[in-house]
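Journal club prep — side note

Before the paper discussion, L.F. wants everyone to see what a predicted structure for a comparable chain looks like in token form. Sequence:
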Amino acid sequence: EDVNMYRSMVGSLIYLTITRPDLSYVVGLVSQFMQQPTKPHLDCIRRILRYVKATQNYGLFYRADLDIKLEGYTDVDWVGSQTDRRSTSGYMFTLGSATISWSSKKQATIALSSTEAKYRGAATTTCEEVWIRRLLADLGEYIDGAVTIWCDNMSNIQLAKNRVFHARIKHIEVHYHFVREKVIDVEVNMQYVSTNQQVVDILTKGLSIEKHAPFRDMLELINIEMIVGKNEGKDDSR
């Protein structure tokens, strides 16, 4: 009944996604119904708030004892939207221990195949890789060699490395040429990762708690109070 309350709650949750990648997908989902929200949408908001309350001490933790290594993950939930059958693209990049860049976004058009949807997602991920590489160079941190981008779709990897498939994918030609060019220039290295290790699933679809919790840990999104408590204990022991 109170549309403004719903919009205010969603707006507040959007701010949380700046530092909480585990909320990106579901907050993006409820924000699609800002014009005419219904009671099920409000119930979903309340469930998100209960999760936030239970994990309010969680944050991204960057460890100082690891080498700076840039890696990316890309995935797409093909025609996952129940309302318009568009696919949801997701990517994330880690630098050292934790995530520094992530995205969960609907694709602009309906993809006719899972390969097309995932290749569009790979192109978006590659654009982000180029931007991060240039940003790090401006900061004096140069990335040598290719940046590994992990993908759970072998068709994407074969398309990026093999020109023979070109005639079959003219409808995604622009995306193909962009990713292919970066692979040839040894800026990007597409590698396979199993679905069970595809952490970007947390950005593209709703997951059970059995999958959500391990993927959240892979983002290095942990209870900061526990880390602080351990460090304080070490200081006391000295």
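L.F.'s comment for the group: Strands lie at 58-60, 70-77, 88-95, 98-106, 147-151, 188-192, 221-223. Keep this in mind when we get to the figures.
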